[in-house]
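Data availability (excerpt). The following record was deposited with the supplementary files.
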Amino acid sequence: MTPEQFDIFWTSTYPDTIPLAHYFKHDYKDRWFRIHSLPESQRYADTDQEWDILLSRQNKIISDLIGNSTKLFIVTGEYDFDGKFNSPSVLDNELLADFKFTSLKPIDMYKPDSDEFEKGTTYRPFFAEINWTQNKYDKILRSIANDEMRAFFISIDKKCLIAPYDGGMDFVIENETIKDVYKNKYKDWLSLHPEGL
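Predicted structure:
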């Protein structure tokens, strides 16, 4: 997929948001839901047993949503606060070394979020194609769960965004009906927070 093809896909499929995961829950409330990775909404895993639970939950729901041995895109990126963006240090992470990332156009962060960002702040996303196989990307999921890196996944076939974070996973599903099916299926993993957070 070329950057131009990605842009066409994104703007036609997710016109109300940008490829930054923490905006998804606000921009697609009707199609969004969240699971927590550990019982009782525990945020971080402290023991091997808790890591087994976390990775088991995340792998199970991703494979259930998109299938096994299926194509996904992984998206990551980094901010440029001072206009001196040179080489993408985010891609120096050894967990991403085997992926062939493609750069997308920088996003002017002042436009979608002037309360948070000053003029001139940009965010540059990168994407790479991967083949999802259950447990193949446990090191990446573990790193995200430890808040050591940030990335999300896109299934073009299933029209689904999958955004792990330190505490759980956010999903934007194709439509509200399908979302409700998965919310019910994984109801024991949902937050008790009234807004699902």
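Summary of structural features: The CA atoms of residues 68 and 133 lie 5 Å apart.
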